[in-house]
Specification:
27% helix, single chain, 7 helices, Oxidized Rhodanese, domain 1, alpha/beta, four-stranded parallel beta sheet, globular
């Protein structure tokens, strides 16, 4: 999200706070003093698509739509959040947790390249999830696997299913 806003000096703590602690790095409950920054947001509008764009592009050749939710949500068997279960017609499922190890670390670049081997760099990839958060894990892992930055449908299933009568 920070890179989307044009901030290039971004790092991700692989494995989160648990990995940090397990590696022996210090933790503190002290709240640091506020620092004033000077970031001027420069959004990357070509990194996202809206519902209308997804509707227009989803069935085109070389467009891959990835649903990043759990397989049972993609299949429409269960929906714990939204009023309607299902997925965008024509989407494929790649659960965001499949790009991480059991301990929550990102898989190696070789493993990620293998995971995404059916997605070619010339494909237009649009990822979504429930509301645009966990799809970013898949987008990040695609970049780590050597792919260009692809697109996010931030509205996700929550937005899509609210228009289901006209969008299916």
């Amino acid at each position: 999200m920070l890179r989307y806003l044009g901030h290039e000096q971004v790092a991700i703590l692989d494995g989160g706070i648990q990995a940090w602690s397990s590696a022996g790095f210090p933790l503190s409950s002290e709240i640091p003093a506020e620092k004033i920054g000077d970031i001027q947001p420069v959004p990357q509008p070509d990194w996202i698509v809206d519902r209308e764009t997804l509707q227009q592009r989803k069935d085109l050749p070389n467009v891959v739509v990835i649903d990043s939710r759990a397989p049972e949500r993609w299949r429409g068997e269960v929906e714990p959040i939204d009023p309607i279960a299902g997925s965008v017609t024509g989407s494929i499922n790649s659960f965001w947790k499949d790009v991480t190890t059991e301990s929550g670390l990102l898989k190696s670049t070789d493993e990620l390249a293998h995971h995404w081997s059916s997605t070619h760099s010339e494909d237009e990839v649009i990822a979504y999830c429930g509301s645009g958060v966990t799809a970013c894990v898949n987008l990040f892992s695609l970049v780590m696997a050597g792919h260009p930055m692809h697109k996010l449908y931030p509205g996700g299933w929550s937005d899509w299913c609210s228009y289901l009568d006209e969008a299916n």
